[in-house]
Design goal:
The chain has 227 residues and is of the alpha/beta class. It has a single domain, classed as 2-Layer Sandwich (lpxc deacetylase, domain 1), CATH 3.30.1700.10. The protein is 27% helix and 23% strand. It starts with a helix and ends in a 17-residue tail after the last helix. The model has no long low-confidence stretch (mean pLDDT 90).
């Protein structure tokens, strides 16, 4: 979903031959490269987007997600982990002009070694490995090669948020802020946004508005060159 949103794909048919989407290397880079290699077909219909009109907040057990009005899509994220290999990280990105592909698309999912062990004891994450996730333990990165960016962890959280927000059914004009939040919290925020009277409205984008959306201005040479 993040690759579709980040590449400006607003109309697509996806076929999956298997129980779930392949995890690849834990990032969206392979999907972004595939989309860019095939190209994007422009259609005659204007893009349906959603404009945030007033702030909305969702909170639970120390996690918080909020969104407020903005002229484009801005994603801001704050994380904090006990493992010093991650620690505290903060990042803000204006998602215009191919920012997703340049800054976020190669950022892999991450986890703590203790979390991996707990999941496997419960029959989960059986296909997970150091090839498709960044695994940390204390101040050590167990995955060979380490992080692709010093703040890869918070960047991946932003990647997740972009994909989750796209479940609205179209791109959003708003400033999203995640604080120690994840998929479930962003989903709760979206539901709250659409259930709150006067908080959001659908719009048919003018060419000027469409130019502010993620994916506009992306070129192949800006996609990160990772193994």
């Amino acid at each position: 979903m993040a690759a579709l949103a980040g590449c400006g794909i607003h109309n697509a048919l996806i076929e999956i031959d298997g129980p779930e989407v392949p995890i690849m290397d834990g990032s969206a880079i392979s999907f972004v490269r595939g989309i860019m290699a095939k190209g994007v077909r422009r259609q005659a219909s204007p893009v349906l987007a959603y404009e945030v009109l007033k702030p909305v907040v969702a909170e639970r057990e120390g996690a918080r997600a909020s969104i407020r009005p903005a002229s484009g899509l801005i994603i801001e994220f704050h994380i904090e982990f006990e493992d010093s290999a991650i620690g505290r990280q903060t990042k803000v990105l204006d998602m215009r002009n191919g920012a997703f592909a340049r800054e976020l698309s190669d950022c892999r999912t991450f986890c703590r070694r203790t979390d991996v062990e707990a999941m496997r004891e419960n029959g989960l994450a059986l296909g997970g490995s150091l090839d498709n996730a960044v695994v940390v333990q204390g101040d050590t990165v167990l995955t060979p090669g380490g992080f692709r960016h010093p703040d890869e962890a918070v960047r991946h959280k932003m990647l997740d948020a972009l994909g989750d927000l796209y479940l609205a059914g179209g791109p959003i004009f708003g400033h999203f802020v995640g604080e120690k939040s994840g998929h479930a919290m962003t989903n709760t925020l979206l539901r709250t946004l659409f259930e709150t009277p006067g908080a959001v409205r659908p719009i048919l984008c003018t060419p000027e508005q469409a130019a502010q959306l993620p994916g506009q201005g992306l070129v192949m040479t800006e996609i990160p060159a990772v193994a």
